[in-house]
Amino acid sequence: MPVRIVTDSSAGLPADVVEELGITVVDLHVMADGEGDGASTAGLSSLELVAAYARQLERGGDEGVLALHLAKELSSTWSAAVQAAAIFPEEQVRVIETGSVGMAVGAAAMTAAKLASEGADLQTCHDIAVDTLGRSATWVYLHGIEDIRRSGRISTGTALSATLLATKPIMSIAGGRLELVGKTRTQEKAFTRLVELVIERADGRPVFVAIQHNDAADSAAHLEGMLDEVLPAGSSLMSLPMEATLAVHTGVGAVGVSAVFMSHPEDVVPS
C-alpha cells in the first residue's frame, strides 16, 4: 500500500478493521492517579510519532503517510504530530486537523485507507479524509458529569447547571470543543433526542453511525435498536466499547454517537 494511514487509539477503531485496512494505531497514554481512585491521560510525544511515521515509511509508504489524530483542542498530540512531520521531507507526512475525536476520526481513517489500498495517492487520501470529517458529527450522552468536569473539558458554569438541574446532558463536539446541545431528565429522553439529531441531519439519506459506550452495553444496545428502527434505508450501524482514553473523561454510563452523513451541513435543506 503506497500511502500509509496512521491514527491514534482515541479513534476507537475495532481491531478487525485496523487489520483489514492496514491502519496503524498509536496508543495514547492512560495513567492511574496518585490516589489510585482515578486516571488521567497524556498525549503522544513528537518522538513517539516520529518513530511511528518512520516505521510506516520504511514499510513501503512510498507515497507518504497521512496522520489523523484527535482534535488539537483536546490533546497535545496534534501539535506533536506537526512537529514530527516537520522532520521528514516536505509533504511526506501530512497531518490533518480533524477537529474531532472517536469514530468520526476513525471513519475518516477508514475511508482514506480504503482508497490507499486501491492505489490512491496522498492528496486523494487526504481529500477524502477531510471530506469525511466535514460530513461527520459526534454527540455524547453523559450519565454523570463528575469525570468530565474534573478533566476540565466543560466549563464550571455548564457543570453547575447540569448538577443543580439534575440533568443528563448531551454534548456535541464541534471544532474540537465540547458544546452543550441538550439537557434531559432521563436517559430515555436523552436517547430520543440523540435519535432526532441523527435523523434531522441525515435528511432522509443513508448514514453511517457508530455507537461507543463506557461500560454501558445494555444502554448502547437499546440506543442501537432505536436507531435501527428509523435510520434511512442503506444506512449502516455499529456498536462498540468506548476507547480507554475517552472513557476516562466521559465517565461510566456515557454513550457516544458518531455519524457520517451523505452531505455537508450547509447542503442540508431545512424541512
From TrEMBL:
InterPro entries: DegV, DegV_C, DegV_domain_contain. PROSITE patterns: DEGV (PS51482). This is EDD domain protein, DegV family. Transmembrane segments: none annotated. It comes from the Bacteria. GO terms for molecular function: lipid binding. Keywords: Lipid-binding. It comes from Corynebacterium pollutisoli. Pfam families: DegV (PF02645). Gene3D superfamilies: 3.30.1180.10, 3.40.50.10170.
